[in-house]
């Protein structure tokens, strides 16, 4: 199971969302929002930018950290949703590339008008 977003009211009656991991641990908590529409926009922004965000290390250069071993995720077969999303992304990317690199060879409006006469 993937993580999920939970929308809630904080102690000041402001809306917030938190990102909860598959194991139930809270991974991130948002800023306060005035209404649910703003929360939805915040979640959409996180979904869009999270996968492409750059990592900037602001820790001091000489800071030592303990070694962390990251367990490899078990190899699972992609679900239908994962495959469909990947296929849609590939199709959208291909259309964008095609649109910019190969201009139309004919104008369909003009061609239909010519065929009608």
TrEMBL record:
InterPro entries documented for this protein: DUF1508, YegP-like_sf
Database matches in Gene3D superfamilies: 2.30.29.80
DUF1508 domain boundaries: 10-55
One Pfam family it belongs to: DUF1508
Domain of life per record: Bacteria
Protein name: DUF1508 domain-containing protein
